[in-house]
Design brief:
By secondary structure, this protein is mostly beta strands. Helix content is 3%, strand content 44%.
């Protein structure tokens, strides 16, 4: 028999925190009031929710879904065993959606049994007017590699580095408690945000990272310019940062293997019949690639920042007759190597307003759009986006692979702004 509402009211008025004969269940409800999905740990049905009880002025968490075999009353039952935790589960809760589970109103407290020296749990019905704390931990950032079914459930883990937590107080007599992401002050620019580390994202001030679809730089989405093979074709000269290898001659070959473009070059050597050659490989993000054809006369330049631990390189290929850029690629690790003079008549620079962020093991990576300009025409591309610009009847395709910088990090690469563009 449940405790009646009248009994709960009398207990509350009297200020008595009495243990009721029957526990009072409470509905624990998550309400996603943000404008993007959130992701919670659904392993064992917890939904990222933790109950805490005040013990000597400090909130002490307890597992309200603990296996019954952990109970002290079952400690001597040798046939009782808890199931394996199994594969971790993640639940996606869409913007405006709800998810809930029920706490049975029983507090799990540390107990003792001679049959289990590792400890066991005793159960106590929670006083209906006792204040408890409900904590929700969630990630606004989609866990990498998790594939969700139609119910929004996928196998995997919610990374701690991307998680944030919020809490709410309640009493069992409330019968239900709602909790969700804390939405910051409304804003239109980061200058309006007053909290430490807050950015204006998704129309609200936040220190977290609302969900976005920007591709993560990694094995599948990456631009790399390999160290060249130089059989006399390239000549080395100094640069303000690092050095460059440059050569003028014939583009003798251009072929793709998977997403790697292999380019071969040649030019006559000083001795009769001598042929000087060079080779460059550029790996593009999966699903992209420049339509390069061989046989034309080009100027090929490979730039290297000289960093042996985390090298960054860039490649530039121009038509040796018209001077038009055929292909420009910059790994953009710790600063771009291709400068304005290299890219004329195009200009590549960063937008000033943050469009998103992601939390990684290196810190918070804040994203900005990348702007490509020629004359009075420009396009602004967010990470992962492509666009085109024209000069007369000629067209170029631009790809912002990524454009972000860490606010603070101990990792060697503090910003990552790779881009590539090519003549169509």
């Amino acid at each position: 028999m449940r405790v009646s509402l009248l009994t709960m009211l009398l207990l509350s008025i009297a200020g008595c925190r009495c243990v009721p004969p029957t526990p009072q269940p409470v509905t624990l409800r998550i309400v996603n009031t943000s404008r993007a999905p959130i992701y919670v740990d659904a392993t064992g049905g917890h939904l990222g929710l933790t109950l805490k009880r005040d013990v000597n002025g400090a909130p002490f968490p307890f597992d309200d879904l603990a296996c019954e075999c952990r109970s002290c009353s079952n400690a001597c039952v040798t046939s009782c065993s808890c199931p394996d935790a199994g594969t971790g589960q993640v639940l996606r809760i869409e913007s405006g959606a709800k998810a809930e589970r029920t706490w049975d109103g029983v507090v799990q407290i540390a107990g003792f049994s001679n049959c289990n020296t590792e400890g066991c749990l005793d159960q106590q019905n929670a006083p209906v007017n006792e204040p408890f704390t409900l904590e929700l931990c969630f990630s606004p950032q989609k866990p990498t590699g998790v594939i969700f079914n139609d119910a929004g459930v996928g196998s995997g883990q919610v990374p701690k580095v991307t998680s944030t937590c919020t809490s709410r107080q309640f009493a069992p007599q409330d019968l239900e408690v709602e909790i969700g992401p804390d939405r910051g002050a409304a804003c239109t620019s980061t200058t309006q945000c007053k909290g430490t580390g807050e950015l204006c994202l998704d129309g609200a001030c936040t220190t977290g990272c609302p969900a976005n679809d920007y591709p993560a730089v990694g094995a599948e989405w990456i631009l790399t310019v390999a160290s060249p093979t130089n059989m006399g074709f390239f000549e080395r000269t100094a640069r303000p940062i690092g050095s460059q290898l440059s050569g003028t001659g014939t583009l003798t070959s251009a072929s793709y293997q998977a997403n790697t473009l292999a380019l071969g070059f040649s030019r006559p050597g000083p001795a009769p019949g001598e042929l000087l050659t060079g080779f460059v490989q550029i790996k593009f993000p999966v699903g992209t690639g420049a339509p390069v054809t061989s046989g034309r006369q080009v100027v090929a330049t490979l730039l290297d920042d000289g960093d042996t631990s985390t090298p960054s390189r860039a490649f530039l290929m121009k038509d040796s007759v018209t001077g038009e850029i055929l292909l420009a690629a910059d790994m953009g690790q710790g600063g771009r190597l291709l400068q304005r003079a290299d890219l004329a008549p195009f200009l590549v620079d960063d937008g000033l307003v943050a469009v998103g962020c992601t939390l990684t093991g290196c810190g918070r990576l804040v994203f900005f759009p990348l702007r490509f300009t020629t004359g009075a025409t420009s396009i602004e591309l967010e990470p992962g986006a492509q666009g085109q610009l024209s000069i007369g009847t000629a067209r170029w395709n631009f790809l912002n692979i990524s454009s972000g910088a860490y606010e603070r990090t101990s990792c060697p690469v503090k910003d990552l702004r790779p881009f590539v563009f090519w003549k169509l």
